[in-house]
Amino acid sequence: MNGRNPSTTDSNDTDDDAFPPYPALQQMESRPELQPLAQAREPYWQAPVIPASHAAYIPTWDWRWHRADTLAADDTPTTLASVNGPLDVLGRIRVAHSHLSRATPSHRPLAPRDVLPGYYRIARPTWAFEGTIVHPLGDSSRLETEALIWVAHPTLALLLELKEEGALGEVLIDDAYVAQAATDFSKWAANLRQRRVEILDAIERSATDAGRAAHLARFFAFEDGYAAALESIRTGEGTTMRRPDWTHAIYAEHAAAMWRRAWSWTYTGRPVVAMPCVDELVVLTADMGPVMSRPTPPFTIGHTLGALAPIEDGEDA
């Protein structure tokens, strides 16, 4: 590392170790103004890890439309990838400020607005639209072998939303661990978003290919640092905190947000061709123009956080 500030100086130094992962978590730990406070109080940084944390299921899928194999040769697909979805949801997710306690049956939620941060053990509800879109819980083999599964609260909120819409039957909640006191990462998220914008602006301002390459390396280091921060929060490695429920909530909210985008697309009458992973959605290229030109499209296309970006084979969004 040559010691020059890559935000102001073009550089030929683009070695993998030129830009170590951005210290996203250390920034939050060392700056109280970025921390998830509640009434000026710090959260329970190392709450007891309950069994539900070890058993938590985050929706995942690898799904194809039942008519995908019958498409004509000229029905070309477009793969849309989430632009750093976990960072997008970080600013709006509510998480536990306190430790998690077992909830009595009378305190288990009946509506999305009643869902508290934590974990809920549920039975897999019946889904009648498997041919149109993957089950909102995904298609993991765990759903076939486990009668009851622990999910993070954003997953339950999605299921209860679908129940209210009349798209899903009864949602059985067998057990729950929740926190009455909640907080959020809005200030940390805003700081990370600003840092991301600064790096992207530096890429756009680069006057040389070498400078652009250096700024791109810095951008990838930023994304690596944020991803590492979430894993450190989950495992407690390299940090003073350990809150797997926070990381699970962020991942679950991202999965729910991606599923909602696909669900919104189905309301256009155009097929979702595939959902190969939580980060990607495949539609027909010919449908993109008519759908996205509507007054209220199902989602945003672009490279801003929360948008979906078209990708080519082997290319990242």
What does this structure look like?
- Helix 5 packs parallel to helix 8 (244-266), helix 6 runs antiparallel to helix 7 and helix 7 (209-235) crosses helix 8.
- This protein has 317 residues and is of the alpha+beta class.
- A five-stranded mixed β-sheet has the order 1-7-6-8-5. A five-stranded antiparallel β-sheet has the order 2-10-11-3-12. Strands 4-9 form a two-stranded antiparallel sheet.
- The model is unreliable at 1-16 (pLDDT under 50).
- A hairpin with a 2-residue loop joins strand 10 and strand 11 (280-284).
- It is flat, with a radius of gyration of 21 Å.
- It is built from nine helices and twelve strands.
What is the topology?
Layout: H1 24-30, H2 51-55, E1 56-57, E2 63-64, E3 77-82, H3 85-90, E4 94-96, E5 101-102, E6 118-123, H4 142-145, E7 148-152, H5 153-165, E8 173-178, E9 182-184, H6 186-205, H7 209-235, H8 244-266, E10 272-277, E11 280-284, H9 285-292, E12 308-311
Parallel strand pairs: 1-7
Antiparallel strand pairs: 2-10, 3-11, 3-12, 4-9, 5-8, 6-7, 6-8, 10-11
